[in-house]
Amino acid sequence: MKTEIQAPPILVKNEKTAKEIKQTFDKGEKFEALAKQYSTDTSNAKAGGKLEYFTVGAMLPEFEEAVCQQEGEPVYRQVDEKAGDV
After folding, report:
1. Which pTM value belongs to this model?
2. Helix (H), strand (E), coil (C) string for 24-44
3. What was the pLDDT predicted at 84?
């Protein structure tokens, strides 16, 4: 099990926006550009969604689970209404 994780999220307010972003990404748009345009997380949106490494247990369990399932590939998953959609 990993003890440190790095996961660039794009947080949005609703599932509809998340699905639109995923469709745009699947058509070839760069993740960093989408994060800058759409992410509601002001702490990392300007950096293209980049986050520092975080330790297991530091984030919402639902977010960590989604991140651990991705294995290097972008993943769409609604995580939590309070945290946004990833």
Report:
1. 0.67
2. HHHCCCCHHHHHHHHCCCCCC
3. 47
Residue whose structure tokens are 């759409």: 38
What are the residues whose beta carbons fall under 8 Å from the beta carbon of 16, sequence distance 6 or more? none
Q: What CA–CA distances, in Å, run from 39 to 3, 42, 55, 57?
A: 26, 7, 22, 23
Helices and strands (H and E) in the chain: how many: 3, 4
Instruction: Check pLDDT > 60 for residue 58.
Output: yes
For 4, the 3-state DSSP assignment is: strand
Q: Which residue has the tokens 């745009």?
A: 24
Rounded Cα gap, residues 26 and 23, in angstroms: 5
Cβ of 7: how many Cβ atoms within 10 Å? 18
Rounded-to-integer distance, Cα 58 and Cα 35, Å: 22
Structural domains of the chain, ranges and CATH numbers in brackets = 4-85 (3.10.50.40)
